Every structure is written in structure tokens, then in C-alpha cells.
Amino acid sequence: MSAGFKVLSLTDRAADRIKAIMAEADRPIAGLRVGVRNGGCAGMSYTMEYAEAVKPGEDVVEDRGVRVFVDPKAVLFLLGTEMDFTTNKLASQFVFNNPNQTSACGCGESVAITPVSADRLPAQV
Question: How far apart are CA 72 and CA 86, in angstroms?
Fold first, then answer.
């Protein structure tokens, strides 16, 4: 999807937290891999893991000094998403502000996401 569409962006807080986590890794890390998987009461959940290298077909997003690899199966679900990191009295967590998300479960562990269709593709950047 390298036609100029921005798949994912990071806030300063998210980038700073990712850099801190990667600095503490026990092995060399090339970036963070982000995706979605089926599961949970709302149907899908976001996934994140260390990435030692880019996999074939992945989009590579470089934002605020961080490399994020986007699973090719997740691109249409994540297109236009902003990844943030929030802290409150009870939790510190990454938050996905996803314009394609249609609902979320009460526990906050899973979401319903509608993939972007050709008629809803954003303008090229």
C-alpha cells in the first residue's frame, strides 16, 4: 500500500514509549510490528510485538524516530489510525484512535473494525 496512503501515525507519547521499550529489549529490535487478529467479544483485537526485521509485504511506517511494521492483513483495518500512549490512575496503555473502528467491548480488550473499501480510501498524502 505504498501508493502514498498513511496507514498509521504516532503521537509523541506513543513514540517515546516505544523507544523506551525497545531500549530495554534483550535483543536487537528493528521496530514494532502492529496488526489485528480475530478474537474477543467484539470480534477483533490489536496486536503488537517486537520486530527483528521487516517481513515480505509489510508496510513500514517511520514516524517520530520509530519504525512500525504493519501486517499486510491489517492495513485496510488500520488505515488512518493514530497510535497514542495514555496513562491514568489505573492503567498505562497504547490506544488506537482508529476511524475504522465501529464499536468496542465493555472490557476494552476487543473492537469491531470495518475494513476500508475502495470508495472510502483517503486522499493520497
Answer: 26
